[in-house]
Amino acid sequence: LSFRFLADGDLAVARRYGLIHAGGGQHGEDVPRPATVVIDRDGLVRWFSVSRNFQVRPDPDDVLRAVRALQQPATRG
Amino acid sequence: MSSGKLAVLSILVAIAAIAAYVLLIRIPLVRNHPEGYVIAFALSTVLAALAVARAQTRRWPAWLALGLSSLLLVGGAWFNFVAARVPDTPTALRVGEPPPDFTLPDASGRPVSLVDYRGQKPVVLVFYRGYW
Predict the structure, then answer these.
(1) Which value does ipTM take for this structure?
(2) What is the count of residue pairs from A and B with beta carbons less than 8 Å apart?
(3) CB-CB: which of A21, A47, A56 is closest to B95?
(4) Considering the entire predicted model, what is its pTM?
(5) Of B102, B121, B130, which is closest to A41 when you measure between CB atoms?
(6) Which of A22, A39, A77, B90 has a C-alpha 20 to 30 A away from that of A52?
(7) Model confidence pLDDT, tens digit, residues A7-49
(8) What does the DSSP assignment read for A5-57?
(9) Per-residue exposure over A20-42, b if at least 16 CB sit within 10 Å of its own CB, e if not
């Protein structure tokens, strides 16, 4: 398991993802909405969570469950 | 219960709510239910109001508790329901569809593309706000 921290300095990616909290920063600047996305090996979104309150983040158990579900052999047709 | 005891209980409930939220913030259940402290402040306010209603001679502890708890209730409710609210936005995320691709530098400046992981391994993408 590894982490890579990526810098989205000008929020271009957050903007492309539709995850901008306009004026939500400490000094009225735009910041991203807190969001977590689980993407499978085929590059498809399998689960995501976008916060509506900056105090709230997804429960790590829910993220793990979504990731573990990817390990199951696909049953979709 | 006497007015004085109700006033003390009211303040204890408010302090316990703040302490529990701050100390247990790493527990997802606590962190993800910030309305919990608002409910505790409301309970504290009700206790203080009862204390005021029952006060006969020494009234200031009850009024102090009522002032403190109602201030916390208004401030806490404003913070949780107004200040901390993140407006809904139409996102580009659809379950079963590929998310928009991107290339961003990692901590050592090397470019990382989402598409590089396709066919390799799953990805968990987390958007942070930068300073918390």
Answers:
(1) 0.88
(2) 154
(3) A47
(4) 0.84
(5) B121
(6) A39
(7) 998 999 999 999 999 998 888 899 999 999 999 999 999 999 9
(8) -B--TT-HHHHHTT-EETT-STTS--EEPPEEEEE-TTS-EEEEEE-SBTT--
(9) bbeebeeeeeebbbbbbbbbbee
